[in-house]
Structure formats: structure tokens, C-alpha cells
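re the bet — no i am not wrong, look at it urself. input seq straight from the record:
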Amino acid sequence: MKKLCFFVSKKCINGVVPVFAFLAFSGAAYAQVVINEIGAFESSDNEWVEVYNAGNEAVDLSGWKFFEAQVNHGITLYSGSSVLEAGEYAVIANKADIFASAKSYDGSLFDSAWSSLREDGEEIGLKNAEGEVTEQFTYLPAPNFSLERANPLLADYTENNWQEHAESHTAGTPNSNFIREDEQTDDSDTDNQDGEDSDQDTEENDSGDSGDPEDDGSSDNPREKRILILQKIRELRRNYLEEFRKLLRQLRSIR
């Protein structure tokens, strides 16, 4: 029997399903491998795609395909290991020998061949050795630098989860906009906080005031209070991402 796991902190947890969880079956580890960074800004021979094992099991990429321009491009191990350990990165390069000589990179490197990745975005994907699509999406335009995924566990292919690097790339290392799993916020985990919520609520109830100047006292229910706070946190995060993109645009304009 296959066991359903929710990969949040690379562990299977019990309880309510988190909104931002990455779902995978323990019997299908390949579903955990995602495209994490795209080097379409490079010249054709230097183009590359970084993949990341976001699960908790090793995955053998032998026989996998990189899907682009409606073509299944084979990948061949050039250096390192074909087995991608949990939390490990690998690079699929259009010409692995050119990538290896041009980049300071010592991770697993796969050679492939395609005409050119579109800087204004196109549909790409990954297929496992059985020919099954494990991920497929249309990436955003990134004409100047690499396109980075903020949260590898989140199947969001919009600008909320993908941004262009400010000045270069991070092939083989955590992305510059990488959001750690423990930074994810969700209102569905309120019942699994090891007593932290109850302690906080007790202190608030004892004082008769939460101490938050924005707390209008509209609800005395601890769960409802927490949901309101989490909503504010999500709003702050959205504002942060908007400011982040604004600063990136300003930085690029200084040439």
C-alpha cells in the first residue's frame, strides 16, 4: 500500500492538510523532483536548467527527459551521480562540456541538446523513465539573468513564486529568493503547535488584552484570532514580494 505524505519539513505529518504542502506518494519518489532555476538568458550553447529533489527520498534520473518545444530531450550523465539525493541539486545543460568549463559547479551535471530556450518564456517540463510527466509549466520571461523559484514545494508558476535573479544566477546552490520550509505560513496548522498557541492565548486572556494595537477585539476565539494574524502575515508577505520586485527593476535600470 502506498502511503500519502505531505512534504513540509521533509517529514510525513499527521493532521490537517497544509495549503502549501507538496503531495507525493512514497511509491512515486520521482514526483518530488522539480525544476528550480532556468538559465534561458545565456547564449544557446550555455543554456541550462537546474532541478531539485524536494522530497525525502533519493531519485535516479537515469532515462529521464527534459521536455521543451514539444520535444522530449534525453539527458545523459556528464559528471557526478545520476541519483539525486533528497535536498540535492543537479543541472541539465544544453552542452555540458561548455557549462562545466564556464561555471564553477561541482554537482551532478547532465548533458542534453535543444535549439534554444526562449527568454520570453515557453512551456517546459520533466518526464521520468516511464514517460510520465512529473512537472510541466510555462515559465516567465527572464531576459537578463536566471529565473529562480522561491519555494520548490509550491506548484505556483506565477511571479509570486518565480523571480529573475538580480545580477547573475545560483546554479547548484539555494536560490537568492529561496523561501525555507519553516518560513511557510498556513492557517491549517493551528492544531499542531505543541502547546505554543495555548500558552500564548492564556497570557492574552489573563491580561484581557492581546497587546496588539491592531487587535479590535472582534473575536475571543483563539483559533479565529490566529487566523486573523495569519491573514495579516500573508498580506505582509505579498507586500514584501512587490517591494522586492520593485527593487529588482530599479537595480536593472542602473546600467
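see?? Confidence is low (pLDDT under 50) at residues 1-30, 185-217. told u. also The first helix runs from residue 96 to 102. so pay up
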